[in-house]
Amino acid sequence: MTHICTPSDRWHFFRTWASDPFRVAAIAPSSQSLARLITKEIVLANAPVIELGPGTGVFTKALLDRGLSPADLVLIEYGAEFTGLLKQRFPQASVFNLDAAHLGDRRLPITQEAGAVISGLPLLSMSPRKVMSILNGAFSRIRTGGNFYQFTYGPRCPVPRPILDRLGLKARRIGTTLQNLPPASVYRISRRHGISGLIHPAAAASPSSSQL
User: Fold this and answer.
1) Whole-prediction pTM
2) At 119, which helix (H) or strand (E)?
3) What is the pLDDT of residues 101-135, one digit of tens each?
4) Contact status, residue 116 vs residue 146, Cβ threshold 8 Å
5) What CA–CA distance (Å, rounded) separates 115 from 143?
């Protein structure tokens, strides 16, 4: 299944970016090249997969191309303008209109641990406190051996080293695509060997300035 970004998708994305550029970091949906890059390590054994900030569903389509079924996907989207679109396009997927910083809320009806999390969130525009909450919540949902995949337009990992250290995580760049506008890189974030990668939610929400 190949996803073609329609002119209406581009206009929808641009309009949302114009209304809140700090929540939507790009002026257009991600390219198929970036979608293939960020999902290239995903296999059926990783199901279920959680996607954060799916927007118009470009990465979601790429996950389906990797062999996952819509029922294998949990889509966490904060923008109500995108949530309805995702429910229409992927009716068998679990779609939640939710801030990704609340992913660790155990009241969410997500019954299985995920084998991977794919993130389209603009982490560089977020506070360290929120980035920590997102990662802490995500890894509370990821089973042992699972990974968190994040893309960035910047020259280095969008998660600062102090945050990785605090959560017991490590990051590795798995590739860069020049065919995206702007060019983008993808990082695989995983638990360090022998470390759970989780801290108390209150600590994640209130990191001290000296540690960050």
Assistant:
1) 0.82
2) strand 114-119
3) 999 998 888 889 999 999 999 999 999 999 999 99
4) yes
5) 6
> Looking at the DSSP assignment, which residues form a beta bridge with residue 94?
74
Inter-CA distances, 85 with 41, 57, 62, 95, Å: 26, 9, 17, 10
Tell me the C-alpha distance between 54 and 61, whole Å.
10
Residue 162's contacts (CB-CB under 8 Å, 6 or more residues apart) are: 211, 212
Classify domain 7-205 at the CATH class level.
alpha beta
Q: How do 184-191 and 142-152 pair as beta strands? A: antiparallel
Two structure tokens written together for 172: 């590795």
CB 133 within 8 A of CB 101: yes
Measure the CA–CA gap between 26 and 192, rounded to whole angstroms: 31
pLDDT digits (tens, 9 = 90+) for 152-168: 999 999 999 999 999 99
The rounded distance, in Å, linking the Cα atoms of 11 and 171 is 34
Whole-number Å distance between alpha carbons of 66 and 64: 5
β-sheet bridge partners, residue 50 = 74, 117
CA 132 to chain centre: 13
What is the average pLDDT score of the chain? Answer: 85
Q: Running DSSP on this structure, what letter comes out for residue 149?
A: E
